[in-house]
Design a protein that fits this description.
The complex is a heterodimer of chains A (109) and B (114). Chain A is 0% helix and 44% strand. By secondary structure, chain A is mainly beta. In chain A, strand 9 and strand 10 (97-99) form a beta hairpin. The termini of chain A are far apart. The model of chain A has no long low-confidence stretch (mean pLDDT 92). Chain B is globular and about 35 Å long. Chain B is built from no helices and 11 strands. Chain B has strands spanning 4-7, 10-13, 19-25, 31-38, 42-51, 54-57, 64-66, 76-78, 87-94, 104-105, 109-113. The N and C termini of chain B lie far apart (34 Å). Classes of the chains: A mainly beta (109), B mainly beta (114). Chain A binds chain B through residues 6, 9, 32, 34, 36, 43-46, 49, 51, 86, 88, 90-92, 94-102, and chain B through 31, 33, 35, 40-45, 48, 50, 56, 58-59, 90, 92, 94, 97-100, 102-103, 105-108.
Chain lengths: 109, 114
């Protein structure tokens, strides 16, 4: 079965410090991985996807198939990064989109 | 204003009653999804649909039903068989069913059963 694991419910980081939000997945096929973000009082929205290999708002994520991980990183945290972050996996086999339980990122001033 | 619209924003129902949550999109998306969001549980997939007149159960489909009679609409019915219906429900849509494409979310419906 497909599964996405985000081990941290809450991560508190000082402004300017590096951020790493962990995500591990379980899927026997070729996964498509995403990070979604939900800012306060806003809709859940896409932050980035692994296939694009892009950097959005300073965030990057690298798919590591050996470790089945897709950790989200940012070298210098900003206060506006405070939000709920969800790692997600989509499958070509049965076309589901599966989410992890989410990590709340709190940037301390 | 294009996008995906859920209504109502807040819904109260008495225990034992069925209730239907609306989800409409004008993005011409093929795929639509329903999730339930509970504190500490993340988003759990209830049902999803890849095409009109077809849908599949997600991980927590028991006590729920859906229909997909039109491409734009994917209503969710929370039946009296759902043991713990009070939750925040999110609807989403995407162009192709999860194939590296972005899912767009509604603003959600908070259902409270009393």
């Amino acid at each position: 079965a497909q599964r996405v694991t985000q081990p941290e419910k809450l991560l508190s980081v000082f402004k300017g410090a590096p951020v790493e939000l962990k995500c591990n997945y379980s899927y026997s096929g070729s996964p498509e991985l995403f990070w979604y973000v939900q800012y306060s009082r806003q809709r859940l929205q896409l932050l980035l996807r692994h296939i694009s290999r892009e950097s959005i708002k300073g965030f990057t994520a690298d798919l590591n198939k050996g470790e089945t991980s897709f950790h989200l990183k940012k070298p210098f945290a900003q206060e506006e990064d405070s939000a709920m972050y969800y790692c997600a996996l989509s499958t070509n086999r049965d076309d589901k989109i599966i989410f992890g339980k989410g990590t709340r990122l709190h940037i301390l001033p | 204003d294009g996008g995906i619209t859920q209504s109502p924003k807040y819904l109260f129902r008495k225990e034992g009653q069925n209730v239907t949550l609306s989800c409409e999109q004008n993005l011409n998306h093929d795929a639509m999804y329903w999730y339930r969001q509970d504190p500490g549980q993340g988003l759990r997939l209830i049902y999803y649909s890849q095409i009109v007149n077809d849908f599949q159960k997600g991980d927590i489909a028991e006590g729920y039903s859906v229909s997909r009679e039109k491409k734009e609409s994917f209503p969710l019915t929370v039946t009296s068989a759902q043991k713990n219906p009070t939750a925040f429900y999110l609807c989403a849509s995407s162009t192709l069913t999860g194939r590296n494409t972005e899912a767009f979310f509604g603003q959600g419906t908070r259902l409270t059963v009393v």
